[in-house]
Amino acid sequence: MTTKTAEVKPIWLYVKTRKVYPRATDGVFANLRWAMVILTQLVFYGLPWLNMHGRQAVLFDLETRRFYVFGLMLYPQDFVFLAVLLILCALSLFAVTAVAGRVWCGYACPQTVYSKLFLWIEHLVEGDRQRRIKLDAAPWSANKLGRKAIKQALWITLAMWTGLSFVGYFIPIRELVPQFVQGSVEGWALFWVGFYGLATYGNAGFMREQVCKYMCPYARFQSAMFDEHSLIVSYDEKRGEPRGSRSRGADPKSLGLGHCVDCTLCVQVCPTGIDIRKGLQYECIGCAACIDACDSVMDKLGYPRGLVRYTTQTALEQRWAWDKVFEHLYRPRVIIYGVLLSVIGTGLVAGLMMRPPIRADVIRDRGVLARELNDGVIENVYRVQLMNTTERPQRVIIAARSSAPVTLSSQPVVDIPATQSVWVPVSLQVRAGGLPKGSNPVDLVFRSQDAELVEPTKFLVPR
After folding, report:
1. pLDDT > 70? residue 16
2. Positions of E strands within 299-451
Protein backbone atom coordinates (compact mmCIF):
# COMPACT_ATOMS: atom_id res chain seq x y z
CA MET A 1 0.00 0.00 0.00
CA THR A 2 1.41 3.33 -1.06
CA THR A 3 0.71 6.74 0.38
CA LYS A 4 0.88 10.01 -1.45
CA THR A 5 2.94 12.74 0.06
CA ALA A 6 1.16 16.07 0.10
CA GLU A 7 2.93 18.81 -1.79
CA VAL A 8 4.35 21.42 0.57
CA LYS A 9 4.05 25.00 -0.67
CA PRO A 10 5.91 27.82 1.08
CA ILE A 11 3.89 30.77 2.36
CA TRP A 12 5.76 34.01 1.90
CA LEU A 13 5.20 36.50 4.70
CA TYR A 14 6.68 39.34 2.66
CA VAL A 15 5.57 40.31 -0.83
CA LYS A 16 7.76 42.58 -2.91
CA THR A 17 6.16 45.96 -3.41
CA ARG A 18 5.00 46.69 -6.94
CA LYS A 19 5.82 50.19 -8.13
CA VAL A 20 2.75 52.32 -8.76
CA TYR A 21 2.63 54.42 -11.92
CA PRO A 22 -0.39 56.72 -11.50
CA ARG A 23 -1.96 57.87 -14.74
CA ALA A 24 -2.77 61.55 -15.22
CA THR A 25 -6.46 62.41 -15.19
CA ASP A 26 -8.66 65.44 -15.71
CA GLY A 27 -11.95 66.37 -14.12
CA VAL A 28 -13.66 68.25 -11.35
CA PHE A 29 -11.78 66.57 -8.51
CA ALA A 30 -8.43 66.74 -10.31
CA ASN A 31 -8.89 70.49 -10.67
CA LEU A 32 -9.86 70.73 -7.01
CA ARG A 33 -6.73 68.84 -5.98
CA TRP A 34 -4.55 71.19 -8.03
CA ALA A 35 -6.32 74.17 -6.51
CA MET A 36 -5.48 72.84 -3.03
CA VAL A 37 -1.85 72.21 -4.07
CA ILE A 38 -1.51 75.79 -5.28
CA LEU A 39 -3.26 77.24 -2.22
CA THR A 40 -1.26 75.26 0.36
CA GLN A 41 2.07 75.96 -1.32
CA LEU A 42 1.35 79.66 -1.75
CA VAL A 43 0.77 79.76 2.01
CA PHE A 44 3.76 77.56 2.92
CA TYR A 45 6.30 79.14 0.58
CA GLY A 46 4.89 82.68 0.74
CA LEU A 47 4.33 83.31 4.46
CA PRO A 48 8.03 83.53 5.41
CA TRP A 49 8.49 86.34 2.87
CA LEU A 50 5.59 88.40 4.19
CA ASN A 51 6.68 91.32 6.41
CA MET A 52 4.66 93.16 9.05
CA HIS A 53 5.71 95.93 11.45
CA GLY A 54 9.23 95.84 10.02
CA ARG A 55 9.78 92.14 10.67
CA GLN A 56 8.79 88.74 9.32
CA ALA A 57 5.03 88.31 9.80
CA VAL A 58 5.25 84.65 10.89
CA LEU A 59 8.46 83.82 12.74
CA PHE A 60 9.13 81.38 15.58
CA ASP A 61 12.32 82.88 16.94
CA LEU A 62 13.67 80.15 19.22
CA GLU A 63 16.84 82.08 20.06
CA THR A 64 14.97 85.00 21.63
CA ARG A 65 11.97 82.83 22.60
CA ARG A 66 9.52 85.09 20.85
CA PHE A 67 6.93 83.84 18.39
CA TYR A 68 5.42 86.30 15.93
CA VAL A 69 2.13 85.42 14.24
CA PHE A 70 1.06 88.44 12.21
CA GLY A 71 -0.02 91.03 14.80
CA LEU A 72 0.48 88.69 17.76
CA MET A 73 3.67 88.25 19.71
CA LEU A 74 3.73 85.18 21.94
CA TYR A 75 6.15 84.05 24.65
CA PRO A 76 6.78 80.49 25.90
CA GLN A 77 4.38 81.35 28.74
CA ASP A 78 1.63 81.46 26.10
CA PHE A 79 2.10 77.77 25.33
CA VAL A 80 -1.50 77.14 26.40
CA PHE A 81 -2.68 78.86 23.20
CA LEU A 82 -0.65 76.43 21.11
CA ALA A 83 -2.13 73.51 23.02
CA VAL A 84 -5.66 74.79 22.39
CA LEU A 85 -4.83 75.32 18.71
CA LEU A 86 -3.62 71.72 18.41
CA ILE A 87 -6.84 70.51 20.03
CA LEU A 88 -8.81 72.56 17.52
CA CYS A 89 -6.85 71.01 14.64
CA ALA A 90 -7.43 67.49 15.96
CA LEU A 91 -11.17 68.08 16.44
CA SER A 92 -11.40 69.60 12.97
CA LEU A 93 -9.76 66.50 11.49
CA PHE A 94 -12.18 64.25 13.39
CA ALA A 95 -15.17 66.31 12.24
CA VAL A 96 -14.09 66.33 8.59
CA THR A 97 -13.43 62.58 8.70
CA ALA A 98 -16.85 61.88 10.20
CA VAL A 99 -18.49 63.87 7.39
CA ALA A 100 -16.34 63.12 4.33
CA GLY A 101 -13.80 60.42 5.14
CA ARG A 102 -10.14 60.93 4.23
CA VAL A 103 -10.54 64.14 2.19
CA TRP A 104 -7.72 65.65 4.29
CA CYS A 105 -5.42 62.91 2.98
CA GLY A 106 -6.59 63.33 -0.59
CA TYR A 107 -6.39 67.11 -0.86
CA ALA A 108 -4.35 68.82 1.87
CA CYS A 109 -1.97 66.35 3.56
CA PRO A 110 1.67 67.41 2.93
CA GLN A 111 2.53 63.87 1.84
CA THR A 112 -0.19 63.96 -0.82
CA VAL A 113 0.59 67.52 -1.91
CA TYR A 114 4.32 66.95 -2.39
CA SER A 115 3.78 63.55 -4.00
CA LYS A 116 1.51 65.33 -6.47
CA LEU A 117 4.21 67.93 -7.20
CA PHE A 118 6.97 65.33 -7.59
CA LEU A 119 4.73 63.18 -9.79
CA TRP A 120 3.95 66.23 -11.94
CA ILE A 121 7.69 66.77 -12.46
CA GLU A 122 8.09 63.08 -13.32
CA HIS A 123 5.21 63.28 -15.80
CA LEU A 124 6.70 66.45 -17.32
CA VAL A 125 10.15 64.91 -17.85
CA GLU A 126 9.43 61.22 -18.50
CA GLY A 127 5.89 61.28 -19.93
CA ASP A 128 2.62 59.69 -18.87
CA ARG A 129 2.09 56.27 -17.34
CA GLN A 130 2.91 53.98 -20.29
CA ARG A 131 5.99 55.99 -21.28
CA ARG A 132 7.31 55.86 -17.69
CA ILE A 133 6.77 52.11 -17.50
CA LYS A 134 8.60 51.59 -20.80
CA LEU A 135 11.41 53.95 -19.77
CA ASP A 136 12.02 52.09 -16.50
CA ALA A 137 11.99 48.72 -18.31
CA ALA A 138 14.32 49.88 -21.08
CA PRO A 139 18.11 49.41 -20.83
CA TRP A 140 20.21 52.39 -19.84
CA SER A 141 20.85 54.82 -22.67
CA ALA A 142 21.76 58.47 -23.10
CA ASN A 143 18.05 59.35 -23.36
CA LYS A 144 17.13 57.45 -20.20
CA LEU A 145 20.13 58.77 -18.27
CA GLY A 146 19.38 62.35 -19.34
CA ARG A 147 15.71 62.18 -18.38
CA LYS A 148 16.45 60.57 -15.01
CA ALA A 149 19.16 63.16 -14.28
CA ILE A 150 16.86 66.08 -15.14
CA LYS A 151 14.09 64.64 -12.99
CA GLN A 152 16.41 64.10 -10.04
CA ALA A 153 17.83 67.61 -10.35
CA LEU A 154 14.34 69.14 -10.32
CA TRP A 155 13.32 66.92 -7.38
CA ILE A 156 16.38 67.93 -5.37
CA THR A 157 15.81 71.61 -6.14
CA LEU A 158 12.19 71.45 -4.99
CA ALA A 159 13.13 69.44 -1.89
CA MET A 160 15.88 71.86 -0.85
CA TRP A 161 13.65 74.88 -1.42
CA THR A 162 11.05 73.19 0.75
CA GLY A 163 13.66 72.65 3.47
CA LEU A 164 14.76 76.29 3.24
CA SER A 165 11.17 77.49 3.49
CA PHE A 166 10.56 75.31 6.55
CA VAL A 167 13.65 76.57 8.37
CA GLY A 168 12.66 80.09 7.25
CA TYR A 169 9.84 79.97 9.80
CA PHE A 170 12.47 79.76 12.57
CA ILE A 171 15.29 81.86 11.11
CA PRO A 172 14.44 85.02 9.12
CA ILE A 173 14.30 83.77 5.57
CA ARG A 174 15.65 87.01 4.08
CA GLU A 175 18.86 86.27 5.99
CA LEU A 176 18.80 82.49 5.56
CA VAL A 177 18.55 82.31 1.75
CA PRO A 178 21.57 84.60 1.04
CA GLN A 179 23.60 82.70 3.64
CA PHE A 180 22.65 79.39 2.03
CA VAL A 181 23.63 80.64 -1.43
CA GLN A 182 26.95 81.95 -0.09
CA GLY A 183 27.61 78.75 1.88
CA SER A 184 27.76 80.52 5.24
CA VAL A 185 24.76 78.90 6.94
CA GLU A 186 25.41 77.84 10.54
CA GLY A 187 25.63 74.15 11.37
CA TRP A 188 22.21 73.49 12.92
CA ALA A 189 20.36 75.59 10.34
CA LEU A 190 22.11 73.69 7.54
CA PHE A 191 21.32 70.38 9.25
CA TRP A 192 17.59 71.11 9.43
CA VAL A 193 17.45 72.40 5.85
CA GLY A 194 19.07 69.16 4.73
CA PHE A 195 16.98 66.99 7.03
CA TYR A 196 13.63 68.44 5.95
CA GLY A 197 14.73 68.53 2.30
CA LEU A 198 15.84 64.88 2.45
CA ALA A 199 12.57 63.88 4.13
CA THR A 200 10.57 65.61 1.39
CA TYR A 201 12.75 64.06 -1.33
CA GLY A 202 12.46 60.55 0.09
CA ASN A 203 8.79 60.59 1.06
CA ALA A 204 7.39 62.34 -2.01
CA GLY A 205 9.89 61.10 -4.60
CA PHE A 206 10.33 57.43 -3.70
CA MET A 207 8.13 56.21 -0.85
CA ARG A 208 4.92 57.99 -1.91
CA GLU A 209 1.99 55.60 -1.36
CA GLN A 210 4.08 53.48 1.04
CA VAL A 211 3.89 56.32 3.57
CA CYS A 212 0.09 56.37 3.30
CA LYS A 213 -0.18 52.58 3.49
CA TYR A 214 2.31 51.61 6.15
CA MET A 215 3.66 54.65 8.00
CA CYS A 216 0.69 56.97 8.50
CA PRO A 217 -1.17 56.16 11.75
CA TYR A 218 -4.27 57.95 10.48
CA ALA A 219 -4.86 55.13 7.98
CA ARG A 220 -5.13 52.69 10.87
CA PHE A 221 -7.62 54.46 13.14
CA GLN A 222 -9.70 56.29 10.53
CA SER A 223 -12.37 53.56 10.61
CA ALA A 224 -13.11 54.49 14.23
CA MET A 225 -14.32 57.90 12.98
CA PHE A 226 -16.38 56.55 10.07
CA ASP A 227 -19.98 55.41 10.27
CA GLU A 228 -22.65 54.38 7.80
CA HIS A 229 -23.40 58.04 7.00
CA SER A 230 -19.84 59.18 6.23
CA LEU A 231 -19.13 60.22 2.63
CA ILE A 232 -16.57 57.89 1.07
CA VAL A 233 -15.42 57.07 -2.45
CA SER A 234 -17.51 54.04 -3.40
CA TYR A 235 -18.12 51.76 -6.38
CA ASP A 236 -21.79 51.08 -7.13
CA GLU A 237 -21.60 47.31 -7.42
CA LYS A 238 -25.32 46.87 -8.10
CA ARG A 239 -25.07 49.12 -11.12
CA GLY A 240 -21.64 48.08 -12.34
CA GLU A 241 -21.72 44.27 -12.11
CA PRO A 242 -21.29 42.03 -13.95
CA ARG A 243 -18.50 43.98 -15.58
CA GLY A 244 -17.18 43.40 -19.07
CA SER A 245 -16.04 45.06 -22.26
CA ARG A 246 -18.46 45.99 -25.01
CA SER A 247 -18.57 48.14 -28.12
CA ARG A 248 -19.65 51.75 -27.89
CA GLY A 249 -23.41 52.07 -28.30
CA ALA A 250 -24.13 48.48 -27.21
CA ASP A 251 -27.00 47.92 -24.80
CA PRO A 252 -25.52 46.49 -21.57
CA LYS A 253 -28.85 44.91 -20.55
CA SER A 254 -29.05 42.85 -23.75
CA LEU A 255 -25.52 41.63 -23.10
CA GLY A 256 -26.25 40.82 -19.48
CA LEU A 257 -23.64 43.31 -18.29
CA GLY A 258 -23.51 46.18 -15.87
CA HIS A 259 -22.13 49.63 -16.63
CA CYS A 260 -18.51 48.80 -15.70
CA VAL A 261 -16.53 48.07 -18.87
CA ASP A 262 -13.54 46.77 -16.87
CA CYS A 263 -11.21 49.36 -18.44
CA THR A 264 -9.18 49.49 -15.17
CA LEU A 265 -8.72 53.26 -15.53
CA CYS A 266 -9.86 53.65 -11.92
CA VAL A 267 -6.89 51.48 -10.91
CA GLN A 268 -4.41 53.17 -13.24
CA VAL A 269 -5.10 56.68 -11.89
CA CYS A 270 -5.08 55.66 -8.20
CA PRO A 271 -2.00 57.11 -6.41
CA THR A 272 -1.97 54.17 -3.99
CA GLY A 273 -2.59 51.52 -6.67
CA ILE A 274 -5.78 50.00 -5.25
CA ASP A 275 -8.92 48.81 -7.03
CA ILE A 276 -11.87 50.77 -5.65
CA ARG A 277 -14.20 48.10 -7.04
CA LYS A 278 -13.10 45.80 -4.21
CA GLY A 279 -14.84 48.05 -1.69
CA LEU A 280 -13.59 50.47 0.96
CA GLN A 281 -9.92 49.89 1.78
CA TYR A 282 -7.75 51.62 4.33
CA GLU A 283 -5.26 52.48 1.57
CA CYS A 284 -7.85 54.74 -0.13
CA ILE A 285 -6.96 58.37 0.54
CA GLY A 286 -10.23 59.78 -0.82
CA CYS A 287 -8.59 61.77 -3.63
CA ALA A 288 -11.43 60.89 -6.07
CA ALA A 289 -9.08 60.39 -9.03
CA CYS A 290 -11.03 57.20 -9.80
CA ILE A 291 -14.27 59.22 -9.91
CA ASP A 292 -12.85 61.54 -12.59
CA ALA A 293 -11.55 58.58 -14.62
CA CYS A 294 -14.80 56.62 -14.40
CA ASP A 295 -16.96 59.66 -15.21
CA SER A 296 -14.92 60.28 -18.36
CA VAL A 297 -15.58 56.69 -19.49
CA MET A 298 -19.28 56.96 -18.67
CA ASP A 299 -19.48 60.15 -20.75
CA LYS A 300 -17.92 58.43 -23.76
CA LEU A 301 -20.33 55.51 -23.54
CA GLY A 302 -23.36 57.69 -22.93
CA TYR A 303 -24.02 56.19 -19.48
CA PRO A 304 -24.97 58.31 -16.47
CA ARG A 305 -22.10 59.44 -14.23
CA GLY A 306 -21.66 58.18 -10.69
CA LEU A 307 -20.67 54.54 -11.10
CA VAL A 308 -17.82 55.54 -8.76
CA ARG A 309 -18.83 58.47 -6.58
CA TYR A 310 -18.76 60.09 -3.16
CA THR A 311 -21.63 58.56 -1.22
CA THR A 312 -22.39 56.84 2.07
CA GLN A 313 -22.69 53.16 2.82
CA THR A 314 -26.38 53.46 3.69
CA ALA A 315 -27.15 55.60 0.64
CA LEU A 316 -25.47 53.05 -1.64
CA GLU A 317 -27.43 50.14 -0.17
CA GLN A 318 -30.80 51.91 -0.09
CA ARG A 319 -30.34 53.92 -3.33
CA TRP A 320 -30.82 57.31 -1.70
CA ALA A 321 -30.92 60.53 -3.68
CA TRP A 322 -28.41 63.31 -2.91
CA ASP A 323 -30.86 65.37 -0.87
CA LYS A 324 -31.39 62.47 1.53
CA VAL A 325 -27.64 61.84 1.71
CA PHE A 326 -26.94 65.43 2.77
CA GLU A 327 -29.84 65.32 5.22
CA HIS A 328 -28.16 62.49 7.12
CA LEU A 329 -24.78 64.22 7.22
CA TYR A 330 -26.08 66.44 10.05
CA ARG A 331 -26.22 63.83 12.78
CA PRO A 332 -25.44 63.93 16.54
CA ARG A 333 -21.73 63.15 16.11
CA VAL A 334 -21.23 65.99 13.64
CA ILE A 335 -23.29 68.41 15.73
CA ILE A 336 -21.23 67.61 18.85
CA TYR A 337 -18.02 68.24 16.90
CA GLY A 338 -19.44 71.54 15.65
CA VAL A 339 -20.40 72.67 19.16
CA LEU A 340 -16.98 71.74 20.58
CA LEU A 341 -15.17 73.53 17.76
CA SER A 342 -17.30 76.65 18.26
CA VAL A 343 -16.80 76.74 22.03
CA ILE A 344 -13.05 76.06 21.94
CA GLY A 345 -12.49 78.40 19.00
CA THR A 346 -14.41 81.19 20.73
CA GLY A 347 -12.41 80.62 23.91
CA LEU A 348 -9.13 80.78 21.97
CA VAL A 349 -10.06 84.05 20.25
CA ALA A 350 -11.31 85.55 23.52
CA GLY A 351 -8.14 84.48 25.33
CA LEU A 352 -5.93 86.06 22.69
CA MET A 353 -7.93 89.29 22.71
CA MET A 354 -7.91 89.50 26.52
CA ARG A 355 -4.22 88.70 26.80
CA PRO A 356 -2.55 91.39 28.97
CA PRO A 357 -0.26 93.82 27.10
CA ILE A 358 2.52 93.15 29.61
CA ARG A 359 3.68 90.00 31.38
CA ALA A 360 5.96 89.61 34.36
CA ASP A 361 7.97 86.71 35.76
CA VAL A 362 9.20 87.32 39.31
CA ILE A 363 12.26 85.34 40.43
CA ARG A 364 13.87 85.69 43.83
CA ASP A 365 17.57 86.45 43.95
CA ARG A 366 18.94 83.10 45.07
CA GLY A 367 22.27 84.61 46.06
CA VAL A 368 20.73 86.73 48.83
CA LEU A 369 17.27 85.65 49.98
CA ALA A 370 17.07 88.34 52.65
CA ARG A 371 19.59 90.69 54.23
CA GLU A 372 19.59 93.18 57.08
CA LEU A 373 21.07 96.59 56.30
CA ASN A 374 23.02 98.78 58.72
CA ASP A 375 20.03 100.99 59.59
CA GLY A 376 17.89 98.04 60.68
CA VAL A 377 16.08 97.74 57.38
CA ILE A 378 15.43 94.29 55.92
CA GLU A 379 15.75 94.00 52.15
CA ASN A 380 14.65 91.36 49.64
CA VAL A 381 15.89 91.45 46.04
CA TYR A 382 14.05 89.99 43.05
CA ARG A 383 14.80 89.63 39.36
CA VAL A 384 11.81 90.45 37.21
CA GLN A 385 11.40 89.75 33.50
CA LEU A 386 8.99 92.26 32.00
CA MET A 387 7.58 91.32 28.58
CA ASN A 388 5.85 93.68 26.18
CA THR A 389 3.35 91.71 24.07
CA THR A 390 2.28 94.68 21.94
CA GLU A 391 3.65 96.40 18.85
CA ARG A 392 4.27 99.70 20.66
CA PRO A 393 6.60 100.73 23.53
CA GLN A 394 5.28 100.38 27.05
CA ARG A 395 6.19 102.39 30.18
CA VAL A 396 5.70 100.28 33.30
CA ILE A 397 5.45 101.66 36.86
CA ILE A 398 6.41 99.18 39.57
CA ALA A 399 4.93 99.29 43.09
CA ALA A 400 4.62 97.01 46.10
CA ARG A 401 1.44 96.18 47.99
CA SER A 402 1.31 94.48 51.37
CA SER A 403 -0.39 94.57 54.79
CA ALA A 404 2.79 96.18 56.18
CA PRO A 405 4.61 99.33 54.98
CA VAL A 406 6.83 97.65 52.36
CA THR A 407 8.64 100.16 50.18
CA LEU A 408 10.24 99.90 46.76
CA SER A 409 13.88 100.99 46.84
CA SER A 410 14.77 100.22 43.20
CA GLN A 411 13.92 102.09 40.02
CA PRO A 412 10.10 102.46 39.85
CA VAL A 413 9.75 103.15 36.10
CA VAL A 414 10.86 100.85 33.28
CA ASP A 415 10.55 101.46 29.54
CA ILE A 416 10.08 98.35 27.38
CA PRO A 417 10.48 98.56 23.58
CA ALA A 418 7.79 97.06 21.36
CA THR A 419 7.63 93.22 21.39
CA GLN A 420 10.71 93.09 23.64
CA SER A 421 11.47 91.88 27.14
CA VAL A 422 13.81 93.29 29.77
CA TRP A 423 15.24 92.01 33.05
CA VAL A 424 15.13 94.48 35.94
CA PRO A 425 16.20 94.15 39.59
CA VAL A 426 13.48 94.96 42.10
CA SER A 427 14.34 95.70 45.74
CA LEU A 428 11.77 95.74 48.55
CA GLN A 429 12.53 97.02 52.07
CA VAL A 430 10.75 97.02 55.38
CA ARG A 431 11.69 98.30 58.84
CA ALA A 432 12.75 95.71 61.40
CA GLY A 433 9.65 94.49 63.21
CA GLY A 434 7.37 95.69 60.44
CA LEU A 435 6.66 92.11 59.37
CA PRO A 436 6.72 88.86 61.38
CA LYS A 437 9.70 86.57 60.96
CA GLY A 438 9.44 84.00 58.21
CA SER A 439 7.67 84.19 54.85
CA ASN A 440 5.15 87.00 54.29
CA PRO A 441 2.90 87.49 51.23
CA VAL A 442 3.48 90.63 49.19
CA ASP A 443 2.23 91.74 45.77
CA LEU A 444 4.30 93.37 43.07
CA VAL A 445 2.11 95.67 40.97
CA PHE A 446 3.03 96.59 37.39
CA ARG A 447 1.02 99.39 35.78
CA SER A 448 1.20 100.41 32.13
CA GLN A 449 -0.92 102.81 30.13
CA ASP A 450 -3.16 99.90 29.13
CA ALA A 451 -3.37 97.55 32.09
CA GLU A 452 -2.41 96.66 35.63
CA LEU A 453 -0.71 93.37 36.45
CA VAL A 454 -0.39 91.93 39.96
CA GLU A 455 2.17 89.20 40.70
CA PRO A 456 2.16 87.65 44.20
CA THR A 457 5.46 86.76 45.81
CA LYS A 458 7.00 86.32 49.28
CA PHE A 459 9.00 88.66 51.51
CA LEU A 460 11.39 86.80 53.80
CA VAL A 461 12.30 88.09 57.27
CA PRO A 462 15.27 86.30 58.91
CA ARG A 463 14.38 84.40 62.07
Report:
1. no
2. 308-311, 358-364, 371-372, 377-388, 394-401, 407-408, 413-416, 421-431, 438-447
